[in-house]
Amino acid sequence: MEWSSTHANLHVLLRKKNLLPKNSRILMAVSGGQDSLCLARLLLDLQPKWQWSLGLVHCDHRWREDSAANAAHVLSLAKTWQIPAWQESADPPPTSEATAREWRYKRFEKVASAEGYLYIVTGHTMSDRAETVLYNLIRGTGTDGLGTLAWSRPLRETQREPQQNHPQITLVRPLLNFTRQDTAGFCAQNQLPIWEDSSNQDLSFRRNRIRQELMPYLRSHFNPKAETALAQLAEITAADTAYLTAQTETLYQAVVSQTKLPTEHKAWEIQRLILKEAPLALQRRVIRKLLQQALTQPPTFAHIEKLLSLLPAPNGSQGDPYPGGWTARVNGPTIQLALF
């Protein structure tokens, strides 16, 4: 191994952020593209310093005619590197980017759980982070969507605490300080055999259009360092969001409770006089959290604002029904959300 500035930068970053502790069992998600190959090679080179136990998983979505050959190529690399490897193939192939991502992460979890890996690493870069910020901004996801692609998170967001016999698996993205140009340069320098994914050029995928058209336009006409600026926005917003999420949870526990109406229908009650005194940002977050539990579809901005407008409303006021027949009604010091 030739020690490079890329090795040094990642080594220092891992020590600073404590993302992948010594002696960890780490499952590397490797597609065969430049980012995941760069990450795999870096971790393999750093392994003697950290005493990691490394494995590899490759997910074949079966979207391309060469996907089986791609999988064979990655498994061959794992054999050369003398590390255990697993292949997962979709049956049937996912029908969208979103379903592909959901399937892929379920497969990661399955292999990690079965083989005792507590960390899964992916090759997401600063470039991916910047593109995801733009994608979420256009979709209107709010500030939570701007603080995207965190350095690490529980693989399953609902499993915040490890359960007996089901230890928590952590998803880690160690390359968020590196651009796609950095990983390409590392692969070229180390003559890594990149598998070119033809679907990356397919502009019917919106993320590809952002990568191929929008980002180059922003770099050319607005900011040559647009990727860095957007990635920094994600980093700053992620910290802000973590703080607001903690404050929201405390306020939610104080103002929201479940009850039953005389009709035996389940209902939620909001202590509106308390919530009304909270900052608007927290009011919206509390209401969104409630609607996420009650509704069968993600709440929209209009849904949240409709309930928010009832905080100062006269007793007996009610809004238009929500999806599923839920109605919010002012009842003295509370707002009841129920199937009246």
Short description:
This protein is of the alpha/beta class. About 50% of the residues lie in helices and about 15% in strands.
What does this structure look like?
- This protein starts with a helix and ends with a strand.
- The strands form 2 sheets. It has a 6-stranded mixed beta sheet, with helices on both faces. The chain has a 4-stranded antiparallel beta sheet with strand order 7-8-10-9.
- 49% of the residues lie in helices and 14% in strands.
- Helix 2 crosses helix 7, helix 5 crosses helix 8 and helix 11 (280-294) crosses helix 12.
- The protein has 2 domains: 5-239, HUPs (Rossmann fold), CATH 3.40.50.620; 261-338, Uridine Diphospho-n-acetylenolpyruvylglucosamine Reductase, domain 3 (2-Layer Sandwich).
- The chain has helices spanning 5-17, 34-50, 67-81, 97-115, 126-139, 143-146, 180-189, 206-221, 226-255, 272-275, 280-294, 301-308, and strands at residues 25-29, 53-60, 85-89, 119-121, 152-154, 170-172, 256-260, 266-271, 327-331, 334-338.
- It contains 12 helices and 10 strands.
- Mean pLDDT is 92; it is low at 158-162.
- Strand 7 and strand 8 (266-271) form a beta hairpin.
- With 340 residues, the chain is α/β, with parallel strands linked by helices.
